[in-house]
Design a protein that fits this description.
With about 50 residues, this protein is an all-alpha fold. Helices cover about 85% and strands about 0% of the residues.
Length: about 50
């Protein structure tokens, strides 16, 4: 019985770590998407284009 209890505890720790990693990944992707929407890409191309 002790071995099965240990397995359950280890499994729950691994599952909670995986849930935490997925939540952090989703949060960072949301922030990245928000920052990309705020960028004005037209200004980047105007600055990089050589002037004559």
């Amino acid at each position: 019985m002790a071995e099965s209890g240990t397995g359950i505890v280890v499994g729950l720790c691994a599952l909670s770590a995986a849930v935490l990693l997925v939540a952090v990944h989703y949060w960072r992707e949301t922030i990245r998407r928000r920052k990309l929407m705020q960028m004005d890409h037209r200004d980047c191309w105007e600055v990089m284009r050589p002037r004559r």
